[in-house]
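If your schedule permits, I should be very grateful for your opinion on a structural question. Kindly check, if you would, that the fold set down in the tokens agrees with what the sequence suggests. Thank you for your consideration; the sequence and its tokens are set out here:
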Amino acid sequence: MKNKQNGILAKAAKVLSDVESNELKATLVSALIIFVLMASYYILRPVRDAMASDWTDSEVSFLWNLNFFVSAALVAIWGFTVSKTKLRNVIPALYAFFAISFVLFYLGISNLEDRDLADKAFYLWVSVFSLFHVTAFWTCMADTFSKQQSKRLFGVIMVGMSGGTLLGPAVPTLLGVVVAGEDLMLAASLGLVAVIPLVFYLYKLKSTELDNDDVSADTSNTVLGGYWWKGFQTLVGSPYLLAIAAFILLYVFISTFVYFEQKNLLADLTRGERTQILGGIDWIVNLLTFGLAAFFTGRIVTRLGMPLALALMPILMAIALLILAFAPILTVLLALQVFRRGGNYGLTRPAREMLYTNVSREEKFKAKPVVDIVVYRGGDAISSDLFALLTDGVGMGLGAVAAVGAGIAAAWGATGVWLGKKFDKAEADGAEE
């Protein structure tokens, strides 16, 4: 039986964010999990990105290509693990694994004199972590909440993500010059350990508060079975998953172009200065995102539909990139970066994650990591090679690259419209049954 909370907090949540009383605990716990995860990641992100300005575009492109192969191998290991292990344990185990890895990095890097190779290994590993920890979280969300709940609640849960991305960058921003980057690895490790009991508590709330056992089988005793390569096979055979992959791929191309130009424009600054600037940008982005995720995302999706929710940011990005093409200066680029990331976190990302409530449990646990990680990192590899070719090879400037990006953003928006229509149609068909 559902445990109804009728306090002031529950009533306020209903009015402000359309959260039902029986959903409040699970929503808050989910938001707290992603808050801690993102704070942990964003403590490390400026440290990682500050390293990149010491390297050429070709060196960074090589690391991104290597990241694709490392990520693909880990996704294959993940597929094997979820086939053989109780699903209750796999996500907490993943967070424990990364926590241990950052402790090992701390112990190893602290004693090195020549750190160039270690810095590149750390850059690569944080990039691997940046997708795995979020993909695992949203897999848990898609497996916990129903399709109808996701439309109302995922935007609210993103408030936790925004909060974490506000807190995390504040640490290197305030301490980036006086605290060594390796010391921040320990703080990130502690955060990853802290989320493990929260995940187990959320599993309990799925049955006791949400009464969502019908969303998928009981998490506590389920072993998914099957083969580790099933996720790769399912992706190739599913037009719906392939469209999600295309949507992500086009987004990655836009992100890569902006990232590399940002890296180049910061090259003349010291590493500590870059860390502070990048941390400050992260903080501003997520402060602006907070209100959008809390109060508007769910209402946009439920009232205006998924096609608009998925296509809105791509359309606006196409316009913004055209502006950048005619005014290729640092101020415009940084404003575009804030706009792109804020819109992604506040609207596009939660809407994209809702798409996975429309697939089977095996697709959530096996195909989703292939799409979110392997396809994403494949896009990184391809787009970084393309950017290096256009800049180091052909010699194109920021304005010309931005014009190319505008065309990519238009294709991204068209893909979002198609996906949104498919999602809404599946929901309508389900309501008729």
About this structure: The chain is about 80% helix and 0% strand. Residues 1-5, 12-16, 216-220 have pLDDT under 50 and may be disordered.
